[in-house]
Amino acid sequence: MPQHVTVSDYSPEWPLEYEREAAALARVFGGNLAAIHHIGSTAVPGLAAKPIIDIMPVVYSLEAVDALKAGFEALGYEYLGEFGIPGRRYMRRGGDERTHQVHVFSVLDTANITRHLAFRDYLCAHPDVCAEYAALKRALAGKYPFDIGAYCDGKEEFVKKHEAAALAWAGGGHE
């Protein structure tokens, strides 16, 4: 069954769910965990989103993460390794109707860490861009309710444009 693409109004439960899940994941990561962040649309107050909690742990060793696969599976995650992005470890929970996604990066991968955090923070600081993004996501979910690929492709130009603006904003002392 293909993933059903739904976009929901912002929920104040999302940060609470992130906190619960981050604590459970931190226990599995143990001393390898350098930091853990709530990323993606559910991390932006007021932003409509697919109700999927995106979590970005930052670790000292990706190889050590691979050795913890069984611990993540015990939490209900499907461990998918790099899953198309070299230098990342990806896990998801909930199957086609996923509820959580975990994107693990090494502390040395500052480019990926910075772009995720800058985009999140830029959306928080720019309500007009946030509203535009919400409208785009709602339109795409309506047009492609069972085609996650088309939904993601439809967002790509917007994300790339505003990710570049976010990186400039983050590096330039903010506007």
Automatic annotation (TrEMBL):
- A Pfam match is GrpB
At the top level, the lineage of the source is: Bacteria
Please give the PANTHER family that the UniProt record associates with this protein. Answer: GRPB DOMAIN PROTEIN (AFU_ORTHOLOGUE AFUA_1G01530), GRPB FAMILY PROTEIN
What name appears for this protein in its UniProt entry?
GrpB family protein
Q: Which organism is it from?
A: Candidatus Scatomorpha intestinavium
Which taxonomic lineage does the organism of this UniProt entry have? Bacteria, Bacillati, Bacillota, Clostridia, Eubacteriales
